[in-house]
Amino acid sequence: MKKNFILGFFLCLIVLASIQLSKSTLIENALTDEFFSSDTILRIEEINNTNFTETNTSLEKQQEMKELLKGQKLSILEKSFDPLKAEYRIVSTSNPNDQIYIFVEENVIVFPHKSSRGYSIKNNHELIREIDFLLK
User: Fold this and answer.
1) Which CA distances in Å does 112 have to 8, 17, 37, 49?
2) What tens digit of pLDDT does each residue of 45-62 get?
3) Rounded to two decimals, what is the model's pTM?
4) Which of 5, 7, 23, 119 sits at a 20 to 30 Å CA gap from 130?
């Protein structure tokens, strides 16, 4: 009886751990390797309601932003976000499916080709602010 209880307890722990792990991912799982390539040019746009205005972001700043994003752990949020309410849209010119919408105030990013669900940065809560600073 005690043996079954202990076995059941450990089984529950394993299930809970796997559920928790499935709610997190690496940013590289949401974007292609091509997005992070130094050869890929990004189109960065500021969003104001339905107006998208392309920014003049240097290639050096683009590369710096890619390095900031690379390897970041993301937590999947239950809440959905309207892309038109984001502050920025970042699109890979070589693969238009590689898109990121950045919500600075909410500290959230969205990958619209996956869903409108948001992701928070798990291991760097200042990353969105760093990207915002870099783009200004």
Assistant:
1) 40, 27, 21, 17
2) 999 988 999 999 999 999
3) 0.77
4) 23
